[in-house]
């Protein structure tokens, strides 16, 4: 019986994670280029799906950047609960949110990519989702705000 050393198995697992993450990143970039082309041709179609929480989609992004951030010694995390008034949070849990998951991922993939790109060792990036009741809308309306906070160098004011 052939025995594979534990260190080799761990290395293979890390490589598999990197390959998977890279594959998903390439798919998102290709999808973004296609969306851009379709928008320019007025052929873009928005295909919303219902999700219990925006955190579900955002957690996938954190996983995509995990390996790269570990190498750069950047802390990248997501706040695991929605912020906001408890009654609105319960409403979101009951009715969910409706977004196009591919478009949503594309947008936050690019924002997070820039945050990682301009961060240095010791910096941190965090994703926070907050819900707020819309005052002049129906009982079912709320605003979802997603913050990407980072301690990177930022952009110069222009």
What's the short version?
By secondary structure, the chain is α/β, with parallel strands linked by helices. 51% of the residues lie in helices and 20% in strands. Strands 2, 3, 5 and 6 form a four-stranded mixed beta sheet that branches. A two-stranded antiparallel sheet has the order 1-4.
Structure notes:
The protein is of the alpha/beta class and 158 residues long. It has four helices and six strands. Strands 2, 3, 5 and 6 form a four-stranded mixed β-sheet that branches. A two-stranded antiparallel sheet has the order 1-4. It has a domain at 46-150: 2-Layer Sandwich (Heat Shock Protein 90). The chain is globular, with a radius of gyration of 19 Å. Helix content is 51%, strand content 20%. Strand 5 and strand 6 (142-150) form a beta hairpin.
């Amino acid at each position: 019986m052939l025995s594979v050393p534990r260190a080799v198995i761990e290395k293979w697992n890390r490589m598999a994670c990197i390959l998977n993450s890279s594959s998903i990143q390439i798919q998102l970039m290709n999808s973004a280029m296609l969306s851009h082309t379709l928008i320019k041709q007025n052929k873009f179609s928005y295909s919303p799906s219902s999700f219990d929480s925006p955190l579900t989609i955002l957690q996938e992004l954190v996983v995509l950047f995990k390996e790269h951030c570990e190498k750069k010694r950047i802390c990248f995390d997501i706040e695991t609960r929605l912020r906001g008034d408890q009654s609105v949070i319960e409403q979101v849990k009951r009715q969910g949110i409706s977004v196009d998951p591919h478009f949503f991922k594309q947008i936050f993939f690019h924002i997070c990519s820039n945050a990682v790109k301009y961060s240095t060792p010791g910096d941190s990036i965090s994703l926070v989702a907050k819900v707020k009741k819309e005052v002049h809308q129906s009982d079912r309306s709320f605003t979802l705000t997603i913050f990407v906070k980072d301690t990177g160098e930022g952009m110069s004011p222009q």
